[in-house]
Design a protein that fits this description.
single chain; alpha+beta; Phosphorylase Kinase, domain 1; Transferase(Phosphotransferase), domain 1; 3 domains; two-stranded antiparallel sheet; disordered C terminus; nucleotide-binding; transmembrane; protein serine/threonine kinase activity
């Protein structure tokens, strides 16, 4: 009897030990599998989460916004530390889908980095002729700048998945020999700032300034409403607006950009003073309306031809005191325009700009609203021009008929007028 009891106890103990071993083995297996899954999370996320409503479908939700000082993800010794440590910078860049250039090729294309064409906040920019015959701009980031390294990662990740005709295209990068290099499509007419302030360029016409404003607005509208998740640029200024060979404008420099989905509370204020939203400065919270404020400053810069660091907004506030019913803004018009602008059109653009810089963010228009207003302004311009042209043609025809003793008004006038309206609708 005692032997039977001992046997039963021994079997019971053995079963319990076996169960405990099995449970331990299961936990170990799941733990190691979890580590493996977390280490590969960036590549899986890139394949499953779309970044844009239109265009390329390769993406990742991770960018500099998740590893910078504003990040909600920290590297503390908790459950998330394993995830953070498994996410290497190399995987951030490789997940972007942007081609990687060798340092040697870029060195050759820039004649050993001697073809300097400009200098940005975080590095020098060179013109490069690639072996394929393509002309590109090569931006070499400052090696001792931590902010420059963060800018590099952000630009590669964001521009690897954001594509729009009014955003500067990133065509490649290089991360060799301790260097961080970005390769862009070459914008032959340089920055908007150079055309507004440099004596080397002729003054931009008023007509062209409004088209440039619409191009920038469309680029920002895409970032705010076309990108998924939305992107806040955070550094809109005339130096970051580049012009191509046909003077079409594109938004550039995404080093400070953030996805709207991350913590909007900035640890440090980033951007360019003069363009910064007062609400952002006081609360350190950035939103889409922060970009709208900066765009409003840019509009006034286009109108007045004055740098924000040289008292532009003070000039605007003084002018606002004497305006009534959105009339009177022509007094701040750039002297280089030499009075060659449509007064009504300038007042409409200035009134829009003033709404954009309202100190209360919720009272500012959205970028979509701004695009609609600028489009309507340009459409009205288009219709006016054609009606003026039509009126001139009609007057000439009537004069010819009077010489022949008759006054005839062509029956095609109204049809032509309607066709112009239709053409304007199709263009805009």
């Amino acid at each position: 009897m005692e032997e039977s009891s001992g046997l039963i106890i021994g079997i019971s103990i053995g079963v319990v030990i076996g169960v405990l071993l099995a449970i331990s083995a299961l936990f170990c297996f799941r733990y190691h599998r979890r580590r493996s899954q977390i280490g590969n999370s960036s590549s899986r996320r890139a394949a499953t989460i779309p970044i844009r409503a239109n265009g390329a479908d390769s993406s990742t939700i991770l960018s500099d916004s998740t590893i910078g000082p504003d990040s909600p993800v920290k590297s503390g010794r908790d459950g998330m530390s394993v995830w953070f440590e498994g996410f290497r910078r190399s995987s951030v860049v490789s997940a972007s889908g942007i081609p990687e250039y060798s340092y040697k090729d870029l060195q050759k294309a820039t004649c050993n980095f001697t073809t300097l064409i400009g200098q940005g906040a975080f590095g020098l920019v060179y013109k490069a002729q690639m072996s394929t015959g393509e002309t590109v701009a090569v931006k070499v980031l400052t090696t001792d700048s931590k902010q420059g390294e963060k800018e590099f990662q952000t630009e590669v990740m964001l521009l690897g998945r954001l594509h729009h005709r009014n955003l500067v295209n990133l065509v490649g990068y290089c991360a060799e020999k301790g260097q961080h290099i970005l390769v862009y499509v070459y914008m032959s007419n340089g920055s908007l700032a150079s055309h507004l302030y440099s004596e080397e360029h002729e003054s931009l016409s008023w007509n062209l300034r409004v088209y440039i404003a619409l191009d920038v607005a469309r680029g920002l509208e895409y970032l705010h409403d076309g990108a998924v998740p939305p992107v806040i640029h955070r550094d809109i200024k005339s130096f970051n607006i580049l012009l191509d060979h046909s003077m079409r404008a594109r938004v550039a420099d995404f080093g400070l950009s953030r996805e709207e989905m991350v913590d909007k509370h900035a640890a440090n204020i980033r951007g360019t003073f003069g363009y910064l939203d007062p609400e952002y400065i006081s609360t350190r919270t950035f939103t889409k309306k922060s970009d709208v404020y900066s765009f409003g400053v840019l509009l006034f810069e286009l109108i007045a031809g004055r740098n924000p660091l040289q008292g532009l907004m003070e000039h605007v506030q003084l002018a606002a005191m004497s305006t009534e019913d959105n009339v009177g803004w022509e007094e701040i018009a750039d002297s280089r325009l030499d009075g060659k602008f449509d007064v009504q059109e300038l007042n409409e653009v200035a009134a829009l700009a003033y709404k954009c810089v309202d100190r209360v963010p919720r009272k500012r228009p959205s970028m979509r609203d701004i695009v609609q207003v600028l489009t309507r302004i340009l459409k009205t311009r288009h219709v006016k021009r054609h009606r003026t042209s039509l009126s001139t043609v009609t007057t000439d025809e009537a004069a010819v008929d009077l010489e022949q003793g008759e006054t005839k008004i062509p029956i095609t006038v109204h049809r032509r007028d309607e066709s112009m309206d239709s053409a304007a609708d199709s263009i805009f």
